[in-house]
Amino acid sequence: MVKEPVLVIDDAPYEQTLAPALAALDYGVVLVHSGAEGLRKFETMQPAWVVVGDGVHDALALVDGIRLQDKEVQILVTTTGKLEAAVADFKYRADEFIVLPAAAPMLSVVLRRMEKVVHMRRQIRSLSDNPEARDRERLQATVETERFLAVRQIVEKMSAFISQVASDAQGGMRYFNELPYFVSIHDKQCTLLAANGIYNRYLGNRLYQNSWGIYAGRRATRNGCPVGRTLRHESVMKTRALVRYASGARVPVTVHTAPIYDNDGNIDLVIEIFAGTKEIERLAAESRRTHQRYEQLFNAVPSSIVVLDRRFRINAANRAFRENYGDHTGRLFFDVFRPGIFPAYRDPISLTVRSGEAHQGDMVLTNNEGMKTNVMAWTSPIKTATGKLIQVLAIFADVTQLRKLQTNLANLGLMVSTLSHDLKGSLTGLDAGVYMIDSGFYRDRPARIEEGLDTVRLMTERIRKLVTDILYYAKERDIHPVPTDIQQFAGDVAANVATKVKGANIQFNPQISDVPVEMPIDADLLRTALYNIIDNAVEACIESPAPDQHRIDFLTEVHPDRIAFIVEDTGGGMSPEKAKTVFDLFSSTKGRQGTGIGLYVTRKIVQKHGGTVAVNSRPGEGSRFEIELPRQVGGSISGK
């Protein structure tokens, strides 16, 4: 039998085209290497079908030109790339597609389909030249042609549909081709009409052969095979069977068959689908091994890692994250954590979800112990093969200690600068006091000597206080509370500061509660805290000129559950903004005259006793500092 001549249009070398494979199958092949030459050759040859390589220059225009000359010509497009890309480019311009180099079974199936279409179309055309047979055969031939084309389209559409599903789930055509599902279409005479690629690969090319030829045992008969059972029962069936592969292997499968009805409600076709058990078991075992390796690597990473979906739900967390922050799988990330440093939805995770790009930045997360930790976050998008974002991988590295070190280094630099200035002023004052004493002795002026001694004592006290504050700030100290008479303690504080306050021409008004109370406190530390507040009040009064004499009140209040120490002055006061930061490190109300350490140390001492310190102040109306301590101070409290 002489086969159809084939026109091959491809600009690739001969051995890289479909021409050698066609020649090996005894087809007459005419090969041209350009679109223009191909159109001229087609016009003279008028072949029934043409092979076009997708690499030919302006291949789409070439196919359209061929169609203009003959609408019924069969066009086979070859590609060396991805099949789905070629299908997307040519769409309905071509009839068949194949990937080079072509496997012999697949090429044989494609050529046979094309030859049958050409044959049927020629039969239809011949009817128009035979008036006697037209009425008798035209309808049957047309129906047979359309029926064959419909069957082929069913399998192709099914393949395209499953391919799209696989693509949406991170894949593409390659996933469909790898799925162990065998899909085939049969007619009501139990003849195979079409099958997908994996069917042909494992079971051989059985086009137009009987439906039961692939089965063994009792299913290897017309009535016993799954297609025959569906035709008999006229319903969807589920059949257990033994399939014989082309390699000789026998595999148990579960076959699903369903009838396809014509317009009159009669069964016209049967679709058959089954999965290879061994392939499924192999894929399952491989999936388990891959999952185990993934889990081991995922949990071995020392950094905390989470995987979130596009709705910020935590899908997975490694061991380090669970140990540090708890197992919150299934919960929304921002219901558990807040972004911290960043404004709402400007954190790295939110930015990656919106942009689909990697980001990094600082965040603050609360760990299992309820402590806030500074973390550096790196986020990376997880996308499908088509570029669709489906998840976000977030890696967190704890940098809390690094941030503390940075803060401490910054504070150290600021403290050195502040202390250098303050020490320089104090040393200048000492020089002045010593000069006054020297000159007083030299000139025999006792008043000048006394003034110099007062200056030396003042500067010495200032240096002593500065050194004490530095020691409290620099070295962590535990408190050692012992039962103490609060009346006597407050009286001692008032007596020690009374001379200094009155010496500054400030009225001092101590009001010690007469209710006897004994409670555990660290008297030395608490005395320092009260001295700092009273010194601050003295400085505020000195720096605030007023026609009337300034006053400082020192009060104690006894409550059932707490003790209050109150220092109230009539100095210049401070703004609400300043009052909010007065206890912060290096925040001074004295301008360049203060270090900003004293009140910071005071707050730490009060906190160590389990108490609180607050200030109420307004510009021009003085300030009120209030320390409240619980009546029961438990044990030793540490930590800055």
Automatic annotation (TrEMBL):
It is a multi-pass membrane protein. Keywords: ATP-binding, Kinase, Membrane, Nucleotide-binding, Phosphoprotein, Transferase, Transmembrane, Transmembrane helix, Two-component regulatory system. One of its GO terms (cellular component) is membrane. InterPro entries: BphY/WalK/GraS-like, CheY-like_superfamily, HATPase_C_sf, HATPase_dom, His_kinase_dom, HisK_dim/P_dom, HisK_dim/P_sf, PAS. It comes from the Bacteria. It is found in: Membrane. It catalyses: ATP + protein L-histidine = ADP + protein N-phospho-L-histidine. One of its GO terms (molecular function) is phosphorelay response regulator activity. The keyword rRNA processing does not apply. It is an enzyme of class 2 (transferase). Residues 359-411 form the PAC domain. One of its GO terms (biological process) is osmosensory signaling via phosphorelay pathway. Its EC number is 2.7.13.3. Residues 418-633 form the Histidine kinase domain. This is histidine kinase. The lineage of its organism: Bacteria, Pseudomonadati, Thermodesulfobacteriota, Desulfobacteria, Desulfobacterales.
